[in-house]
Amino acid sequence: MKEIGITEFKVKCSAILDQVRKTRQPVRVTRFGKPFVEIMPPTQKRKLGSMAGTTRIVGDIVGPTGNLDDWEAWRD
């Protein structure tokens, strides 16, 4: 990953952002020689239904989640 100082980033901000967008390679900005922030290209948006089949339902998802005696409305 390419590293640049924060001062250089301030001067060349627009060009660096364009470079990240075009090359899809992240850039790390340092401050006093230590990592300060990483500029990453955006991830692709997920399509509707792309997570289908990745979960499993266990138990009753419609019924009450506790004892009915705990509900004041049920006692009346």
Overview features:
76 residues, single chain, alpha+beta
Total strands: the figure is 3
Classification by helices and strands: alpha+beta
Tally of individual helices = 3
| Order of neighbouring strands in the sheet with most strands | 1-2-3
CATH class of one domain: Alpha Beta
By CATH, the architecture of one domain is named 3-Layer(aba) Sandwich
What is the arithmetic mean of pLDDT? 86
What is the CATH T-level topology of one domain?
Answer: YefM-like fold
Distance between the termini: 66 Å
Q: Give the C-alpha Rg.
A: 25 Å
| Coarse morphology | elongated
Architecture overview:
The chain has 76 residues and is an alpha+beta fold. The protein has a domain at 1-42: YefM-like fold. It has 3 helices and 3 strands. The chain has helices at 6-11, 13-23, 72-75, and strands at residues 2-5, 27-31, 34-39. The protein has a 3-stranded mixed sheet. A hairpin with a 2-residue loop joins strand 2 (27-31) and strand 3 (34-39). The longest helix is centred in the first third of the chain and has 11 residues, at 13-23. It is elongated, with a radius of gyration of 25 Å.
